[in-house]
């Protein structure tokens, strides 16, 4: 996530010269490490507030700013220029809140007399805690998108989750340290081409092993995936992965939508919904997988419309041709 603010300044020169790229990566890692130490010295609320301020200033000036506005204009085409600018500013501030919260993930998901995560359980988590059923818990990049898997793991659900790969290895180590605060195994999703994300073979094998072993998965699905099928997302085709539904069909596990909502700095509401209904033996498995995935995509759209400034949209969601046809930036 921090790479979206700092590493976005890497220009074509840096990409052509390995030594310059390495130098900028190291400098970026040092800057983020300084922020990390500062955040750790503060309370979760104050760290989130500092992150909101810093990214609220830096984000709109980064090279990702045009892409954020382009994504928001596709999702919310009726907004005028002033409203779009305001929404983009609030989006960057939410990304900043997440930046500050990374240093305190363990405290945020900790249970106690004053929990920072309120859980609204509509799926019956006890069933998944006891291993009576497995689930693929699915969500979108809303609020603080790390909260879903970490909270479910803290609640006793045997979880394995995916996270985005970072180009900067120094940041990768730092982000791994942040996620390791809570006992929830996480894997890198795989390489990104800038246009699509692709799951590596080893990652897919680990996901299947987790399900075969009786565990559950946590996946974020509002991404353009190289192996995906073009399905409408805010009225435009997005390469959407059918893998969660296919795995659920293969291993007989549930698909449980999970929504994270921000109720304050470093405070959230996590709602688990009833599992989607899957046919035991559909006549056309592909069509059934597409139909279920469409339901999920529509649900995520609804959540994003209801909390638009909490959607992390600093990566490309649609094909370049979609942006070009609308006269929008796509970098």
Could you write a compact summary of the structure shown?
The protein is α/β, with parallel strands linked by helices and 331 residues long. Helix content is 47%, strand content 15%. The chain starts with a helix and ends in a 6-residue tail after the last helix.
Description:
This protein has 331 residues and is of the alpha/beta class. It has one domain: Glycerol-3-phosphate (1)-acyltransferase. The protein has helices at residues 3-6, 12-16, 18-40, 44-58, 65-75, 81-101, 105-109, 125-129, 147-154, 169-179, 201-212, 243-251, 285-306, 320-325, and strands spanning 117-121, 135-139, 159-163, 186-188, 216-220, 229-233, 236-240, 254-264, 267-272. Strands 1-9-8-2-5-3-4 form a seven-stranded mixed sheet, with helices on both faces. Strand 3 (159-163), helix 10 and strand 4 form a beta-alpha-beta unit. Helix 4 crosses helix 6 and helix 12 (243-251) crosses helix 13. The two termini are 16 Å apart. The model is unreliable at 1-9 (pLDDT under 50).
- Count of DSSP E strands? 9
**Poorly predicted segments:** 1-9
Here the CATH topology equals Glycerol-3-phosphate (1)-acyltransferase
- SSE topology string: HHHHHHHEHEHEHEHEEEHEEHH
Helix percent reads: 40-55%
**Mind telling me the CATH class?**
Alpha Beta
Distance between the termini: 16 Å
Gyration radius over CA: 19 Å
| Biggest sheet layout | 7 strands, mixed
The class by helix and strand makeup works out as alpha/beta
User: How much of the sequence is in beta strands?
Assistant: 15-25%
Strand order of the largest sheet: 1-9-8-2-5-3-4
């Amino acid at each position: 996530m921090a790479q979206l603010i700092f590493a976005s300044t890497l220009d074509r020169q840096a990409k052509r010269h390995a030594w310059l790229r390495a130098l900028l990566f190291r400098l970026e890692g040092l800057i983020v490490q300084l922020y990390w130490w500062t955040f750790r010295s503060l309370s979760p609320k104050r760290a989130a507030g500092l992150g909101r301020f810093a990214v609220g200033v830096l984000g709109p000036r980064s090279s990702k700013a045009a892409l954020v506005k382009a994504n928001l204009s596709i999702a919310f085409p009726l907004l005028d220029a002033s409203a779009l600018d305001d929404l983009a500013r609030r989006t960057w501030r939410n990304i900043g809140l997440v930046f500050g919260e990374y240093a305190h993930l363990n405290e945020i998901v900790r249970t106690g007399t004053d929990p920072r995560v309120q859980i609204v359980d509509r799926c019956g988590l006890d069933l998944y805690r006891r291993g009576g059923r497995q689930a693929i818990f699915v969500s979108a990049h809303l609020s603080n998108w790390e909260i879903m898997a970490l909270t479910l793991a803290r609640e006793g659900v045997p979880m394995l989750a995916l996270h985005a790969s970072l180009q900067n290895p120094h940041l990768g180590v730092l982000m791994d340290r942040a996620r390791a605060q809570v006992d929830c195994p996480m894997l890198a999703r795989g390489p990104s081409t800038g246009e699509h994300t692709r799951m590596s073979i080893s990652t897919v094998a680990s996901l299947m092993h987790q399900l075969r072993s009786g565990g559950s998965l946590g996946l974020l699905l509002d991404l353009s995936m190289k192996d995906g099928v073009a399905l409408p997302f805010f009225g435009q085709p997005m390469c959407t992965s059918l893998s969660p539904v296919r795995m659920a069909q293969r291993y007989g596990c549930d698909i449980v939508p999970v929504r994270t909502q921000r109720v304050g700095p470093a405070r959230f509401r996590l709602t688990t919904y009833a599992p989607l209904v899957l046919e035991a033996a559909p006549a056309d498995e592909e069509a059934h997988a597409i139909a279920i995935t469409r339901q999920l995509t529509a649900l995520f759209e609804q959540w994003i419309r209801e909390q638009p400034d909490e959607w992390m949209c600093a990566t490309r969601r649609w094909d370049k041709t979609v942006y070009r046809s609308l006269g929008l930036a796509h970098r």
